[in-house]
Prior knowledge:
Blueprint: H1 2-17, H2 27-31, E1 37-41, H3 48-51, H4 55-64, E2 76-80, E3 105-109, E4 114-118, E5 124-131, E6 149-152, E7 155-156, E8 179-182, E9 185-189, E10 204-206, H5 208-217, E11 232-235
Parallel strand pairs: 3-11, 9-10
Antiparallel strand pairs: 1-2, 3-4, 4-5, 5-10, 6-11, 7-8, 8-9
Amino acid sequence: MRNRVRLLQLLIIASLMFPVLALSASYGKKICKTPGFHCLRVKGNQSWRSLFPDDHDRGIVMRVNRMNTQIYPGITLAVPDNLAEADIMDFSPFPLNVPSPGEKIVIVDPASHAWGAYDAEGVLVRWGPASAGADYCRDIDRECRTHEGSFRVYSLGSSDCYSTKFPLPDGGAPMPYCMYFQNGQALHGEPNGLPGYNASHGCVRMYVNDAEWLRYDFIEGPNSGNHYRGTRVIVKAY
């Protein structure tokens, strides 16, 4: 009974934190039966740290499942069979090499809940979990998917970046290291963590440390050195 009450509390918190149904299927449950993985169903008071005490193992499982929020009883995680020897690049949903694009690009794939950064030679430099726009946002009563297509970053923010619109009516939601690319939609860190599904109002949420790396070590805003063409961001179809 106590576990059921705790589960209900967590679901209520999740429904308030994310504008889509908290019962959305997790990414881990979708992939855990594919070759190279096995399914782990969370029980009782298990946590990320109790299940995966090793920092390396825990970090990989979190990224594979596209989530770093608190786990709760009943959720299914995908765990790599070769976890101890694995490297995060082994689980990239993007090719490690593509034909040279001639410029740096960031790919966002809402279907695999991930982003990838390629250098001008077409080498995947880094990838990470992402949570793009949701199919439906209850607070605005409509679809709020991230726009698909090819865009360029036009504005960059710092760790103090925040939304001027959400939560309604006055905004204030933190968006650390925001990188705007289309009509108010941005790549940015998510201090509250990623849930393993698309849950935003249209922005692309990611780990805060990933957003910081993109903001300061990879993405460029418009400047004279790039002919005032910021780094290209490509959002794939859902």
